[in-house]
Amino acid sequence: MNQNIAIETALEVIKTNNFALIGTVNQMGNPNIKALVKINNDGLKKFYFNTQSNSVKVSQMKNHKEGCVYFFDGMQHIGVLLEGEFNIIDNVDAGISEIYQAVETGKFDLCTVEFTPKTLSLYKDYDTEVVDL
User: Any idea where the domains of the chain sit in the sequence?
Assistant: First the structure.
C-alpha cells in the first residue's frame, strides 16, 4: 500500500462515519476514549465535533491538547487513526455558525472541538501505512 492509496482509503472511511472515537489523557495520565458526533471535516486538514462545554473530555483537551481520533469500517476491517491536537472553540465565537449551528438545549452549554491531525495511520489487510500530514 502506498501513501496516496492510504489517504484515499482513509477519506472514504471517514466520509461514511458520523461518529469517531476520541482519545485523550486524563489528569492521572491514563487514556480515555469517548465517541463524539463528527459535524464536519475539511479533508484531512481539520475535523469538527461538538460536546458539552463542561464535560470531562473538554477539560482533558484543554489540559493536554495532544490526542487522537479513530474511525473504522467494521465490514471491511479498516481502521483510521489520526494523531494531532485539539482546540476548543466556544460556539459564540465568530464564524463558528458556519460549521455548526447550536440550538437551545436548556442547561447544556455546547462547544465545538476542532482537531488538527499531524499523522495518519491506516490499518488494512494486516498492513499499516503511516502518513505525515
Answer: 3-24+32-132
pTM of the model: 0.87
3-24+32-132 CATH fold = Pnp Oxidase; Chain A (2.30.110)
CA distance 102 to 111: 9
Q: What is the pLDDT of residue 90?
A: 77
Distance CA 52, CA 105 (A): 10
Task: Please state, in angstroms and rounded to a whole number, the distance separating the CA atoms of residues 92 and 69.
Answer: 25
Please check whether residue 77 is in contact with residue 9, taking contact to mean a CB–CB distance below 8 angstroms.
no
pLDDT in tens, 71-112: 999 999 999 999 999 999 876 553 444 444 544 444 457 788
